[in-house]
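[agent] plan:
  1. take the single chain provided in the ticket
  2. run structure prediction with default settings
  3. attach structure tokens to the ticket
  4. add a short note for the reviewer (M.T.)
[agent] executing step 1
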Amino acid sequence: MSSQAGPRAVVAGHGTFAAALMSAVARISGKAEVFVAVSNEGLDARGVEEAIGKALKQHGASVIFTDLPAGSCTLAARRIARLDSSISIVTGATVAMVLDFALGAGAAEPDLRRAAESGRAAIVVYPASGGAGGN
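[agent] step 2 finished; step 3 output follows
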């Protein structure tokens, strides 16, 4: 269990993705302080890596949530984690996933696996019900 005050994770993604995710989590749980947002907006590969690295170092966070598994933020996070084995990365971040993490107290592998599973479990398809047989 973490007793760390302030951000425990960086949320990184395209455009305003990270800020929007943090906004949603704040409105639902009041726990926006668990995260620090990083955008890749206007940054090249080196810039994204530097921005994520700076956020990690400045806040003492050890987890990075990213939007796309092969996106620029994840690639940058993987380069950072290659040099620092204490960094964990969770890709495909969703509101359900980061909310689960925010409401938990830890950042250990079981906490991250639980958050990832919450994100997967929240994906549901409601098929069209208006037509005969619905395409």
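[agent] step 4 note for reviewer: The first helix runs from residue 17 to 29.
[agent] ticket updated
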